[in-house]
Design a protein that fits this description.
Layout lengths: L7 H20 L1 H8 L2 H6 L4 H23 L5 H13 L3 H25 L8 H19 L33 H12 L2
Length: about 190
């Protein structure tokens, strides 16, 4: 993929796709947060899990399709941005989705700049730059399943920023908001 053949029509297509995707994603942010706790917990708080998954799949497909139609395939961009964003802002989708978009846009611009400058006057494909960084990043994600990491974007963050930390010996995979902690406690106590 490349940004060299960009046009204002392409910008409009990607902008519309991104607006639809972010809009639907934001609309279902609470439901996605509930699904993080598991299907049973999400159903117990009134989330239609199957319907939510289908709509969110469509919401993710629209901007991806618009981007690929405009720029071509640019590997690893959609894999890296959400994982980096989750490591910075935590799992709450209300913050995660827009921050992922900003991280992805910034990474794409950085990769495009590198592709244009590294071998000037010849331009490398942007996908070559994103793949050169994305492949080791992907290996790092796989290694984290074994509690090993190369880049330090470990998803296993404890509660931070003044939120209460539970001392029940539960292991949390990411930062939680206080509301999510209360929801989990209520579900565990059967309230």
């Amino acid at each position: 993929g490349s940004l060299s053949g960009g046009s204002w029509g392409g910008v409009a297509l990607v902008g519309c796709g991104a607006a639809i995707g972010l809009g639907l994603g934001s609309w279902f942010a609470r439901a996605l947060d509930a699904i993080l706790w598991g299907d049973d917990v999400a159903r117990s708080v009134g989330v239609d899990v199957n319907r939510t998954r289908i709509i969110v799949l469509i919401a993710a497909t629209i901007p991806a399709a618009a981007s690929v139609a405009t720029c071509g395939v640019i590997g690893f961009l959609g894999l890296m941005a959400p994982h980096i964003a989750r490591g910075i802002v935590g799992p709450e989708h209300r913050r995660l989705l827009p921050f992922s978009a900003v991280i992805g846009a910034g990474w794409l611009l950085t990769a495009d700049l590198a592709a244009r400058l590294l071998m000037a006057p010849t331009e490398l494909p942007v996908g070559a730059i994103t793949s050169a960084v994305g492949a080791p990043f992907s290996l790092d994600l796989s290694a984290k399943e074994e509690n090993v990491g190369l880049f330090g974007f470990n998803a296993e963050k404890k509660l931070a920023k003044g939120e209460e930390q539970l001392a029940k010996g539960l292991r949390y995979e990411a930062r939680l908001t206080f509301e999510e902690v209360l929801l989990r406690e209520n579900v565990e106590q059967g309230i």
